[in-house]
Description:
Blueprint: H1 5-25, H2 29-53, H3 59-89
Helix pairs in contact: 1-2, 2-3
Amino acid sequence: MNVGLNHFLIVSTILFSFGIFGIVTRKNAVMVLMGIELILNAANINFVAFARYGSFGYNGQVMALFVIVLAAAEAAIALAILLNIYKTFTTVNVDEIDRMKE
């Protein structure tokens, strides 16, 4: 059995769906961040798969590296924001942090 582009796209679609599900259904901000990371990983799989099976050369791998760097920076900044939110409100539930609007 040869692994083709369709297999990568199916795995990427499943990861993307889990990420969207995690963002929509979770109240915990850490779980929402994990959903965002799943979506970024699905994009990485697509970049690498299209670079491998398309005629894009190394552009897909380079874009995947940029997404990995972006995800690392996003995780560091988001965790710092979450620590400040926890220190202020003593919770990381997204529903209970509506006092920030004021």
